[in-house]
Amino acid sequence: MTHDLVDRLTEKHDVRKTKRKLTGSEKFWLIFRYIALTLIWFLVVMPIYVMIVNSFKGVDNVYLVDAFKLPIPLDFSAWPVAWNGAAFFPHGLNESMFRTLFFVIQSALISAVIGSINGYVFAKWKFRGSNVVFTLFLFGMFIPYQAIMIPLVKLSNTVGMNKSIYVLVFAHIIYGIPICTLIFRNYYETIPNELIEAGRVDRASMVRIYRSIILPLSIPAFVVVVIWQFTSAWNDFLFAIFLTGGSPKLSVATTALNFLTGSPNAVYYGMNMTASLIVSIPVLIVYIFLGRYFLRGMLSGSLKG
């Protein structure tokens, strides 16, 4: 009897296993959050569902009244037409997709390298007025595309880049430098200064320290910047439409969709859905396979010390 009483008094209770009853107010907000998340999920997923479902209904078998219905039977005829083109759609997506991949990879890699060098200088080799220069770099992030449309077109015409896809490479590199510099600068601030001092003690130059110490530690930041620049350049429409003049020979993924909308008397919804799905596949692949690395890279530079 005495031993049982002592055991009960000295027994340790696991607080984590004890569930506190929710009050009426807490239950209401919990239910409200679940309902709100369900509605948001529905709003996000439903357009994707409609696009996928209607891409398997053929070129001209999609109507607004049955847009939400499943395809019975499956019709894949819109996919080769959207990719290769046809008599009534002379411009397919194949050339535009490869052209987009060509300029997007270049602009992402070049802007990432330039941003890395700038971030390294602003973070570890500060000079008089470096904070002012860095602030001016950041102003480039807030200049809207519409504000530089006319000057950029005149510049591209003057240097003869208006008839080349490199005009888009140039535009996205220039616009990508500010955000790339910001990301790399914040990331390099988390690298201990003792590593830089150790390199100086060994008489390593500024370039040698960057190549041997900083660059091997920059993989997470490079992943973040490349993914950011890739998606930004791939999804861009404004630069692509006014710098190329809407020419089919310079069309990229987003502008090529204009040539697949159909005629003024008929809109081929099946073709539109299929083409939009094909154009979005590269970005989906990037985020599906590299999304976790993107988050790790963002978080790795968010805390210092």
CATH class category name of the largest domain: Mainly Alpha
Radius of gyration of CA atoms, rounded to a whole number: 27 Å
Tell me about the biggest sheet? 2 strands, antiparallel
Low-confidence stretches: none
End-to-end CA span:
56 Å
Word description of this protein:
By secondary structure, the protein is an all-alpha fold. The protein folds into 2 domains: 21-84; 94-300, Orthogonal Bundle (MetI-like fold), CATH 1.10.3720. It contains 13 helices and 2 strands, in the order H-H-H-H-H-H-H-H-H-H-H-H-E-E-H. The protein has helices at 2-10, 24-54, 78-84, 94-124, 130-139, 149-159, 166-189, 193-201, 206-214, 219-235, 238-243, 253-256, 269-300, and strands at 262-263, 266-267. Strands 1-2 form a two-stranded antiparallel ribbon. A hairpin with a 2-residue loop joins strand 1 and strand 2.
From the structure above, extract its key features.
305 residues; mainly alpha; MetI-like fold; 2 domains; two-stranded antiparallel sheet; 13 helices; globular
Helix and strand arrangement:
Blueprint: H1 2-10, H2 24-54, H3 78-84, H4 94-124, H5 130-139, H6 149-159, H7 166-189, H8 193-201, H9 206-214, H10 219-235, H11 238-243, H12 253-256, E1 262-263, E2 266-267, H13 269-300
Summarize the structure.
It is found in: Membrane. The chain crosses the membrane at residues 28-52, 101-121, 133-153, 165-188, 209-231, 237-260, 267-290. By secondary structure, the protein is mainly alpha-helical.
